[in-house]
Design goal:
Layout (H helix, E strand, L loop, with lengths): L5 H12 L4 H8 L3 H13 L2 E5 L5 E6 L9 H14 L6 H8 L9 H22 L1 E10 L5 E13 L4 E6 L4 E6 L5 E8 L9 E2 L5 E2 L3 E7 L1 H10 L7 E4 L2 E8 L2 H9 L5 E5 L1 H13 L3
Antiparallel strand pairs: 1-2, 3-4, 3-7, 4-5, 5-6, 8-9, 10-12, 10-13, 11-12
């Protein structure tokens, strides 16, 4: 299904969840009944078991995927553990882990479909970066400010946040912005070259926030706070130190919100030794609490 259109993938998503009539598919997808029937035939050609219930509604009962194995089961298990341990948040990780599972792959559920789209979009953006081309980002979901879904023409600059989002120059706003891969519906490479704008890559902190100039903070941690910080944010581990029997986090943060949320979740267990912007953020958040 690598070359499947977003419309066809949406149909898989719908029919995998519940039985749906042709008229309802027409309303949801905005395609003619004739086109929908053609897409149903395409699904059958791909090996999906498209069935009809007693009300003539369509649904996917099951699907067998034929896969060529290049590794034996021991090798697959080894590769599975490598990706899981060392690159679990990479944009390609979910697709690789799915392929390495020893059991058969069944009908894709919603997360699997989204993972496949994200992998495909990552590959297209990588190709655009390689050839210095603009991209058309179709129906991108933005939740900053007013929630909106619209097309955007972008000049990709680089990946950030463990390849989970892209920094790009937006043509319409004439500004650099970040775009999350899991909110992209479709990416199309345009036959237009970028203007070679250069931006300094942003620093991403242990809490997944990015900035050009991170700020240093120093916190004293309880044993519980130290353990939870290490478990929930492993990239903070290099900045966790012990001195005179006490534990501290002394490291860079890009925005007070990320580390602030962690602190607010552990009242009385973290002391802020240094971090003026962090203190300001926490004071504002404290005023918003009501019970």
């Amino acid at each position: 299904m690598n070359d499947a259109s977003p419309n066809l993938l949406k149909m898989i998503e719908i029919l995998s969840i519940k039985a749906t009539s042709l008229q309802d598919l027409h309303k949801i997808l905005g395609k003619s009944v004739k086109q929908i029937k053609r897409n149903l035939d395409k699904l059958k050609e791909q090996g999906y078991s498209v069935e009809q219930d007693f009300q003539n509604r369509y649904f996917i009962f099951g699907a067998d995927n034929l896969r060529n194995r290049l590794f034996d089961e021991t090798e697959q298990a080894f590769l599975h553990s490598l990706v899981s341990l060392h690159a679990p948040e990479h944009a390609l990780a979910a697709a690789i882990l799915l392929k390495l599972k020893p059991e058969p792959i069944h009908i894709p559920v919603v997360p699997q479909i989204k993972s496949g789209l994200m992998t495909r979009n990552f590959e297209l953006i990588s190709e655009a970066l390689k050839h210095n081309k603009r991209v058309l980002l179709k129906r991108y979901l933005s939740i900053s400010g007013v929630v909106s879904v619209k097309d955007r023409i972008l000049e990709p600059l680089y990946f950030e946040d463990h390849h989970r989002q892209m920094k790009a120059w937006e043509i319409s706003s004439r500004m650099p912005k970040s775009f999350k891969l899991d909110r992209m519906e479709q990416v199309e490479i345009l036959d237009e070259s970028c203007k070679n704008r250069q931006l300094k890559p942003m620093f991403t902190d242990a809490f997944s926030f990015s900035s050009v100039k991170p700020r240093m903070v120093k916190l004293q941690l309880s044993i519980r706070a130290r353990e939870l910080l290490s478990e929930d944010h492993p990239e903070a581990i290099p900045y966790i130190i012990q001195k005179e029997g006490k534990w501290y986090f002394h490291g860079p943060v890009s925005h007070p919100m990320g580390i602030g949320r962690f602190i607010l979740g552990l009242p009385g267990e973290i002391v802020i030794i240094y971090g003026p912007e962090l203190l300001g953020y926490l004071r504002v958040m404290k005023e918003k609490y009501s019970f």
